[in-house]
Structures are given as structure tokens and as C-alpha cells.
Design brief:
By secondary structure, the protein is of the alpha/beta class. Helix content is 42%, strand content 19%. Helix 1 crosses helix 2 and helix 7 packs across helix 8.
């Protein structure tokens, strides 16, 4: 049986709840899913934004099999209209689709939410990847792809959003005017709360947990993104730049996160605190 035939057959094993129509041509499925084996455990919601019905059918079945609730939006307008009601724990986002494209959806979401976003796109160029990451995407997977890899990345993003980088520290950490409060998952600079995505927060906590140590790019990738990430150095470069833009007075001449050429980065809280004291 073709894979889509299998997928449609598996759908029969689930209960599909509410169907909402935004208009006559655009349909959103808000799936209140219960595995046929029963159980009422609360399941994370994932929104898939893609205009390819064959792909969304397959993603829907695969993600539901893993225990997630899935909502499908076939275009950018539908996604933005549906987002406040569905409140997903994660968004899987295509870049090329009718109406507002994926980049516009990404920009809109990031103005209002830090929900993890996995871009799933046929665009293979480095420029597209960097643009998406700069726009606030947490991960980028190109089509065609292996479903096992997508599921692994989804799980990694959800773990990161729930727990941040691994750290045994619970007390607030202060580095000059920068304060990290792990229990509240809150970061402030000069008393003002910073808006950080889960990935930005996880990366900052990883830096702060090992101050003044040189951390290699591979080490940071595996600690923050997961053990399967080893060569995606562009991810790290983009997110270091994003962090610097939020915590540094002069991102072009950083004091907190310093590049160690050919190796990686060092978090230098003492130097930053000294500079801030002198400026004060």
C-alpha cells in the first residue's frame, strides 16, 4: 500500500474533533486527538503550516502517532488567524506558500511569541537558512527529509523549551547588570526583562554555567541543540549574534560573549562587569 494510503488508514485509529472554517476556501483542522488505546493525558500541540496536503497528511499521522495534537494551516493567513486559539507548543513552518510567506509568518510570530519554530522547507540555500534563523527560527530542516530526523528535532525543541540548557543552578546568577533567574526562566538587563526565545535562553544559560571557559562550537551545538548537531555552525553563529544584540551595549565589540578564533566562544562576565562599573 502506498505510504499515503497507509497514513489515511492510520487516521481511522484516531478521533478527530473540532473542525473550524475560516471561510469557504480555507479550512483549519483543530484536532482534539485521543489515541485509540485511550487515555486523556494532556498532549503538546503542534501547528503545521504548509500548503502541500500530501505532506501535511503524512506529518499529521506521524506526529499524532508520537502523541501530539496537530493543527494544520494551509497558508499564512490561516496560520496567523488560528494561532491565538490553538496556542501551539511548537510550529512547523514552510517558507513558500500562498498569502504571507513563511518569512512573514515567522516575523509576525516572533513579535508576539517565543514559541519554538522549526522551518521545514525546500529552500536549500545558506541565505535562506540564515535569513530564517535571523528571523527567529529555532531549527531548519530541508525537504526531502527523513521523518525520524524531524521527530527527533521536534522532541529536542520541546525539551529545550521546557527545560532550557542543562544546569544544576537554581539561584539567580548576576553578571554586572545582567541577571539570570533559572527558576523563573527570566533574564533581565539593568532591571529590564529581556525577551529571549527558548534557544536564546538555553544558549545564554550554557555560557553562564561555564564562565571564562573556552567552549567549542561543537560542544555548544550538542549541548544546546542536541547530540545530533555537529556541523551546523551557522546556527550557532546566528544565535550568538542574536544574543549579543540583546545583552551587549555594543554588539560589534562584545564584552560578555567573546569569539575565540578557530575554536568557539568564551563568556567573560568579570570583564563586562568591570567595564560597566567604570562606565557607571
Amino acid at each position: 500500500m502506498p505510504i499515503l494510503g497507509i497514513a489515511k488508514h492510520i487516521v481511522l485509529c484516531y478521533t478527530m474533533g473540532e473542525i473550524m472554517r475560516r471561510d469557504e476556501t480555507s479550512v483549519i483542522w483543530a484536532l482534539k486527538v485521543t489515541r485509540y488505546t485511550g487515555g486523556s493525558m494532556k498532549r503538546p500541540r503542534i501547528m503545521v503550516v504548509d500548503d502541500d496536503p500530501g505532506l501535511t497528511d503524512l506529518l499529521q499521522v506521524s506526529l499524532r502517532f508520537e502523541g501530539y495534537k496537530v493543527g494544520i494551516a494551509p497558508d499564512g493567513v490561516t496560520a496567523l488567524a488560528f494561532l491565538p486559539r490553538f496556542q501551539p507548543a511548537l510550529i512547523i513552518l514552510d517558507l513558500v506558500m500562498p498569502g504571507p510567506d513563511g518569512f512573514a509568518v515567522l516575523e509576525h510570530v516572533r513579535r508576539n511569541s517565543d514559541v519554538p519554530i522549526l522551518v521545514l522547507s525546500a529552500k536549500h540555500s545558506v541565505d535562506s537558512k540564515v535569513r530564517a534563523l535571523n528571523g527567529g527560527a529555532d531549527d531548519y530542516l530541508t525537504k526531502p527529509f527523513e521523518m525520524e530526523e524531524l521527530i527527533a528535532r521536534v522532541k529536542a525543541l520541546l525539551r529545550r523549551a521546557a527545560h532550557g540548557a542543562l544546569s544544576n543552578r537554581t539561584a539567580p546568577q548576576r553578571f554586572g547588570h545582567l541577571c539570570i533567574e533559572p527558576q523563573k526562566r527570566c533574564v533581565t538587563l539593568r532591571g529590564e526583562r529581556l525577551h529571549l526565545t527558548p534557544t536564546e535562553y538555553a544558549l545564554l544559560v550554557e555560557f553562564a554555567s561555564q564562565p571564562d571557559e573556552v567552549l567549542s562550537r561543537t560542544f555548544l551545538l550538542q549541548r544546546v541543540w542536541g547530540p545530533e548537531y555537529r556541523t551546523e555552525s551557522n546556527y550557532l553563529h546566528v544565535y550568538v549574534q542574536r544574543l549579543r544584540s540583546k545583552i551587549e551595549d555594543d554588539p560589534a565589540n562584545p564584552r560578555y560573549i567573546v569569539t575565540v578564533p578557530g575554536v568557539g566562544y568564551r563568556f567573560c562576565p568579570d570583564a563586562a562587569a568591570t567595564a560597566e562599573s567604570a562606565a557607571g
